[in-house]
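debug: dumping io for the single-chain case to check the tokenizer round-trip. Nothing else runs in this session.
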Amino acid sequence: MTLARIDFEASTLTWTGVGNVSANLVAKSVSGVAVRSSARLTGGIVGYRTPEILPAQRVSIRTGDLLVIATDGIAEDHLDHIDFAATATAIAEQIIAKHAKETDDAMVLAARHRGALS
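debug: decoded output
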């Protein structure tokens, strides 16, 4: 399980996790996609071996950043070929289509920071 909270007023993302649900904050770069930050996960099993302390990490976010959370049913190289011009929904669908393992269940959440409302 990985939890993420975005504070748009402070332009921060706070996250924590137990187990193996990866979370990455990515941005468009000259070479494609740059991972700006990754959630630090604590070992354990939710509901069985949940750690007593879950350290939260806070990072800054910028307009255009993309949060991608994926279960272990998604191959580790799922960030290598993201089409940053696509919508967050399309990116999540592309990751599922191209990187889901046949031997496990798979889930992807993708959310883009679109900037402050005017």
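debug: round-trip ok. Helices lie at 88-99.
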